[in-house]
Design goal:
alpha/beta; Chitobiase, domain 2; TIM Barrel; eight-stranded parallel beta barrel; 18 strands; 36% helix; disordered N terminus; binds acetamide
Length: 532
């Protein structure tokens, strides 16, 4: 009887899985349509609206890149077609409809972003279909989709290790494929400063020297031309790039370049802070933020604000800080920190930027309509509650489960552990807002989720890929798919499909179903890079 039951479950699962739509993140409304659509070189991409012409070309190029099929773009066709059309009646800035029928494809949305999301769903169907004799046969679906959260982010820390343009663009490509829309670029910290600032060239030239392993590694940084290139590349994919210029702590690399603005540090974190007791510090940082604002189009800068107490003990005796405390009636060093943050936030507001800050800033008093708080300390749930009670819009990025430098498997050699905890792919996927006890009245303040790739131990492209793929798929579904549409068995099946794409693209992924197995025999260099 038991055997029969297992067989029945297997059969049922097999049946259910065979019917499943393979798109990641899983769409919020999807129905099967009978039949198959065949794309051939005669299929045309139809678009007679200049507002979405770039998206039509993106689809054309991606189909060529991933399948070798050359489709033309035009205003009309007599053949079967993929038709892109803006329609105001579709509600939601990112919502789209995708109808794949035996006689053609329709993608409709009210915005170009919605069209782009529909295109990426179609590209996923295409990439997972078989190409035979230059024909692609696709299962038919009717999809009405829109995201659960507006903010679906990924952070890359390039201070601790620098990865460069190619890796950043690869990340942006995959983010677009999975409908992630915010790239949080952690460009400054203790080991190095990675952003060229014309007014202060030593920030990159001197501050760019070193990484987490080697304080003498030759300077590596992004030039302003490269930054503009990344921002434009991301914009083509509807991804906002948000720079993080961490202050007043995590400032050691900047202080190496311009020690005059250092507020000192501690034994463990030397020269860790900017000096809040010097007026010139504010004009120096203001100038940096003005250049940053010109380079990035997102109208948001993340000012960090985390862990200042790691290295602000010299403030206590610094004559400038002591005087500031007297003049401004600041009772303690936390009050100094908040004074500093409010002043730098004001600089951003004058530039029509929002200020983004880690959850320590929930203790400060900043304008609610121009401030976003990132809750990262999973072991401080009271900080999330405080941010919400005070009325801040908040992004959830708790270390557990959202820091992807943490281990995903007990057999892994690579990654950090939090008090022995391992965050498996399934645990990550199970992340649920309901477990955070957020009251209904505050739910609308949670605008999204974000994962972080911190790179103390992630030193190479292979390691980065290993820690990110396939976790990025779980992140995408947490951000996009409604709880009631998620399913762990369905997700496993979708991940298995995505692993095929990683193999095709030469991604050095982690296989959660066969943890000990690496995708390809490793080169000697990869073996050396993978072991700590
Ligand atoms: C952080 O991880 N210090 C934001």
């Amino acid at each position: 009887m038991k055997g029969l039951l297992i067989f029945a479950c297997f059969f049922w699962n097999g049946y259910a899985i065979a019917q499943q739509c393979p798109i990641v993140p899983f769409p919020n409304d999807v129905k099967t349509i009978n039949g198959k659509l065949t794309l051939t070189v005669n299929t045309q991409i139809i678009c007679d609206d200049d507002r979405i012409n770039e998206q039509a070309i993106y689809l054309q190029q991606q189909i060529l890149k991933t399948t070798g099929l050359t489709l033309s773009v035009g205003a009309k066709s007599t053949n079967s077609a993929i038709t892109l059309k803006l329609e105001n009646s579709i509600e939601g800035a990112e919502a789209y409809r995708l109808d794949v029928k035996p006689n053609g494809v329709n993608i409709t949305a009210a915005t170009a972003h919605g069209i782009f999301n529909g295109i990426n769903s179609l590209l996923q169907l295409i990439r997972l279909s078989v190409v035979k004799n230059n024909n692609i046969s696709i299962t038919c679906w009717s999809i009405k989709d829109s995201p659960r959260f507006a903010w679906r982010g990924l952070l890359l820390d390039e201070s601790r290790h620098y990865f460069g343009m190619e890796m950043v663009k690869e990340l942006l490509d995959w983010m677009a494929f999975y409908k992630l829309n915010k790239f949080h670029w952690h460009l400054t910290d203790e080991p190095a400063w990675r952003l060229e600032i014309k007014a202060y060239p030593k920030l990159a030239l001197t501050g760019g020297i070193g990484n987490f392993d080697d304080p003498k590694a030759p300077s590596q940084y992004y030039t302003q031309e490269q930054i503009k290139d990344v921002v434009a590349y991301a914009a083509d994919r509807f991804i906002d790039v948000i720079p993080e210029i961490d202050m007043p702590g995590h400032a050691s690399a900047a202080n190496k370049a311009y020690p005059v603005f250092s507020g000192g540090g501690s034994t463990k974190h030397p020269e860790f802070t900017f000096n809040p007791g010097l007026d010139s510090t504010y004009s120096y940082l203001g100038r940096i933020l003005r250049e940053t604002d010109v380079l990035f189009q997102s109208q948001m800068v993340h000012l960090g604000g985390d862990e200042v107490s790691f290295g602000n003990e010299k403030w206590r005796t610094d004559p400038g800080v002591v005087k500031l405390m007297q003049d401004q009636h600041l009772a303690d060093l936390t009050a100094v920190e908040h004074y500093f943050t409010a002043r730098m936030a004001d600089t951003l507001f004058q530039l029509n930027n929002k200020v983004l800050l880690w959850d320590e800033a929930a203790d400060a008093d900043l304008p609610r309509d121009k401030t976003l708080i990132f809750w990262w300390r999973h072991d401080h749930p009271e900080q999330l509650k405080k941010a919400l009670d005070k009325g801040y819009f908040t992004i959830l990025c708790p270390r557990l489960p959202f820091y992807f430098d943490f281990m995903q498997d007990s057999t892994q050699r690579l990654g950090r552990k939090w008090k022995g905890a391992i965050v498996t792919l399934d645990k990550l996927y199970a992340f649920n807002l309901n477990d955070l006890q957020v009251s209904n009245e505050h739910r609308h303040q949670i605008i999204g989720v974000q994962a972080g790739i911190w790179t103390e131990f992630i030193t190479t492209k292979e390691k980065l890929e290993y820690m990110l793929f396939p976790r990025i798929t779980a992140l995408a579904e947490i951000g996009w798919t409604l709880d009631e549409k998620k399913s762990i068995t369905g997700f496993h099946q979708r991940v298995l499909d995505q692993l095929k794409l990683y193999r095709k693209d030469g991604i050095y992924y982690y296989n959660p179903f066969k943890p000990q197995q690496t995708p390809e025999p490793l080169t000697a260099r990869q073996v050396a890079n993978l072991s700590e």
